[in-house]
Amino acid sequence: MQLLDVKLGMTTAFHPQADGQSEKTNQTVEIALRCFLGGDVDRYARWTEFLPIVEHEYNSTTHDTT
Known about the structure:
- 41% of the residues lie in helices and 0% in strands.
């Protein structure tokens, strides 16, 4: 980041100084994972298997900024 002269603005989740974008994305991914798991306790240990699907679908949706 130094070589590119990029200034990092590190924040934590739900910190008042955050812009909210990361928190909103995290909430959306969490809801999507809950839908995939569907309350099936046997799937809970394998939740990471659903991340590529959720990532693809989230990145394929139309957003206000695009």
